[in-house]
């Protein structure tokens, strides 16, 4: 790849601009092209680095002469321009792939349908507290490529989505984590769950016997795939239902991790995070920390100071003894299942958005047991109404977050919980899930 000097970046967001900066530093001629508008903050960065760019158009003659193309993860393969690039046999890489070749560092790569952000932030917290010179990037926060260009960390913890894994060829994390695999983004994978599973397992495809794959041994999708496919990396499972020889398991509310006959134990009471899924996230993170030789006492102390992730089961306020929880990051059914399962009170549930091929039926037992009212917050709520209309006392539609929160305030009684856990993407009414979560918190504070 060293001799290929013209890099075209499709998409002028965080990953695209970061890749452009790194490529320029490495001697590439760089051109950034975005079919939509590039945000002013990114335009300023491109101008400061004297990088050529365009937005609200794709000029094909400036793109199809590339030696290599970096495609932002949000752009699907079915886009005509992407198909033209592939037809001309121009290599398409992801930001993760491009940046990793220049990062002389230990990489921890974390993927999964749910829990990957919490696990990434928790792992980073443990490693940083343990004294490692570590950066956190990928699908979270800053661009990995820009970090490689400007920070030169010795270790990286990367949150990696299936979209980012789609365009890797040589990328190899030393430690890979798969938190779980449940149906998500099926609209991107022709509604074939198998293709989505394959995308997730690309995280381990280039690993060797010197590397590690940490995974949820309670997840049937993962364990079935591993039974049928050979993985070179050393397998380190974690489980809350059974004892494992090497890896992590739960016994009498104690997390026990065994790596190379080094035993680490920690009470689940140490965790500030609630719910079974967070016990699993803690198991994955502590396994990484042990592999990277963080002191056991440091790991325990770090768990006590970890505050959790914004927009993930985030307690906002208690008003008239009603707890308001922001779980805007729940963009799929499985994530919402965890959220509803973690609360013991009766709930008013705010749900809806852009459906990604969701099957809501797994939520029916929880809805029957815990949900007293549903507020649909999306442009098209017909599927949610069809599934839940007959099993809840009250179901209404809201056209804005302010309206949804006011309805919830009207419906909730002392002792209840109001939960925003949409199970859907946010792009119909909001910029992204962060915008949706912030609007929820703002509306709650104005009550």
UniProtKB/TrEMBL annotation:
Domain (Mur ligase central): residue spans on this chain: 110-289
Domain Mur ligase C-terminal: 311-424
Keyword Transmembrane helix: no
GO cellular component terms listed in the entry, alphabetical order: cytoplasm
Compartments it resides in: Cytoplasm
Pathways per UniProt: Cell wall biogenesis; peptidoglycan biosynthesis
UniProt GO molecular function: ATP binding; UDP-N-acetylmuramoylalanine-D-glutamate ligase activity
Major subcellular location class: cytoplasm
Residues noted as binding ATP in the record, renumbered to the chain: 112-118
The protein's enzyme class: ligase
Protein's GO biological process: cell division; cell wall organization; peptidoglycan biosynthetic process; regulation of cell shape
Keywords: ATP-binding, Cell cycle, Cell division, Cell shape, Cell wall biogenesis/degradation, Cytoplasm, Ligase, Nucleotide-binding, Peptidoglycan synthesis
Catalytic reaction annotation: UDP-N-acetyl-alpha-D-muramoyl-L-alanine + D-glutamate + ATP = UDP-N-acetyl-alpha-D-muramoyl-L-alanyl-D-glutamate + ADP + phosphate + H(+)
Signal peptide: none
EC number: 6.3.2.9
The organism's place on the tree of life at top rank: Bacteria
UniProt KW Cell membrane keyword: no
UniProt function note: Cell wall formation. Catalyzes the addition of glutamate to the nucleotide precursor UDP-N-acetylmuramoyl-L-alanine (UMA).
Family according to the record: Belongs to the MurCDEF family.
HAMAP family for this protein: MurD
Protein name: UDP-N-acetylmuramoylalanine--D-glutamate ligase
Organism: Neptunitalea chrysea
